[in-house]
Amino acid sequence: MTRLFNVILRIGHFPRSWKMGRVNAIPKVGKDPQLATSQRPITLLYHIAKMFELIALRRLHRHLTPRREQFGFRSGHSTTLHLARVLHNRGRRTVGVFLDIEKVFD
Q: How far apart are CA 12 and CA 73, in angstroms?
């Protein structure tokens, strides 16, 4: 598998079949199951594709050093921790970017 993954990274071609997934709709609790907005889509991917993703992510993390100020997409760094940090930085200017992605997958 290591050789296969290295070839994929070297030639830059990810197999098309690995990009396919099976979407299952899970009804949201307390919502009308007949409505499309009451369904939560869950995509099941091939296990080999997920394994490749994990290995590629580990390799990338070796070369990426997120800034100290970045809290998103970092383990052990939550929005709550960042908010606490902002509140304790009185007298300094702070910029915040907030995205509302509640219905991003509808």
A: 24
